Amino acid sequence: MAGAGGFVEADNAEAIIARIETKSSKIESLLKQYKPVEALKTALEGSPPKTLDERCKSANWIVVHRALMAIKDIEGMLNALDVEYYDILMKYLYRGLSTGDRPTCDQCLKIHEKLTDRAGLGCILRCLTDTINTV
Amino acid sequence: MFQANPLRLYLACIRNTLEAAMCLQNFPCQEVERHNKPEVELKTSPELLLNPVLICRNEAEKCLIETSINSLRISLKVKQADELENILTKKFLRFLSMRAEAFQVLRRKPVQDIEKEISELKISVNTRGRLVATEFLKQFM
């Protein structure tokens, strides 16, 4: 049972990474067309939920990071983003804040403040308590 | 003035996260009868621990917040560019440690890479205790 589960995991990991690659090229083209909000939505959409594989998470984080850094108008971005993506965005913000890289942290702190105003403390608490779907 | 803005954002982020994380309750130990242990220190049961959160302002300043069901640990790394800042940091820390009785601080030794640590533990069902703690920290933010 555990063996079969492990095999499916490995198989899925390759498939997920391939999907992330395609997502990445789509996001690059969206960014070139000056549509950073669309790019961020695409990046957040296919977030691998229950994967334990670090590579998938890192690959997806790189893609999300690229889209996040391209955002200039934060209010507009939050207006356009659906409510269901707030939690996932918050998780990625915390991942960004843990990197310690100055420009990333600056951007993440700005978005964090605005997102907390909109989504409230519940959003933060959901990130803290969700130990299963981590990014 | 221009410098203050990123600092304000950093502190606002820490304050919001702390407010969310200070959702603590009294929780007696599950393993041993009539014992009440701070779970964030002992880590006896994984289901009682929440994701730790690291908030960095830059490479030199960060804040690690680890929460569990009945206790919370904050670790702060503060930029110390010169001797004067070093002295100020030490004084600040001594002050907080001495005031620790107000919010039942149990552990005051540093953890690994994090230079200074303040542990706030077991702010149990005492709502007043929690309010005092939040107000106290706000003064410095």
Topology:
The complex is a heterodimer of chains A (about 140) and B (about 140).
Chain A: H1 2-32, H2 36-45, H3 54-70, H4 74-80, H5 86-99, H6 102-119, H7 121-129
Chain B: H1 4-21, H2 39-42, E1 53-56, E2 62-67, E3 71-77, H3 83-98, E4 116-121, H4 127-139
What do you see in this structure?
The complex is a heterodimer of chains A (135) and B (141). By secondary structure, chain A is an all-alpha fold. Chain A has a single domain, classed as Serine Threonine Protein Phosphatase 5, Tetratricopeptide repeat (Alpha Horseshoe), CATH 1.25.40. In chain A, helix 5 packs antiparallel against helix 6. The N terminus of chain A is likely disordered. Chain B is α+β, with helices and mostly antiparallel strands. Helix content of chain B is 36%, strand content 16%. Chain B has a four-stranded antiparallel beta sheet. In chain B, a hairpin with a 3-residue loop joins strand 2 and strand 3. The two termini of chain B are 16 Å apart. About 11% of the residues of chain B have low confidence. At the A-B interface, helix 5, helix 6 and helix 7 of A face helix 1 and strand 1 of B. Chain A: Keywords: Cell projection, Cytoplasm, Cytoskeleton. Chain A: Belongs to the ARPC5 family. Chain A: Pfam families: P16-Arc. Chain A: Component of the Arp2/3 complex composed of ARP2, ARP3, ARPC1/p41-ARC, ARPC2/p34-ARC, ARPC3/p21-ARC, ARPC4/p20-ARC and ARPC5/p16-ARC. Chain A: GO terms for molecular function: protein-macromolecule adaptor activity.
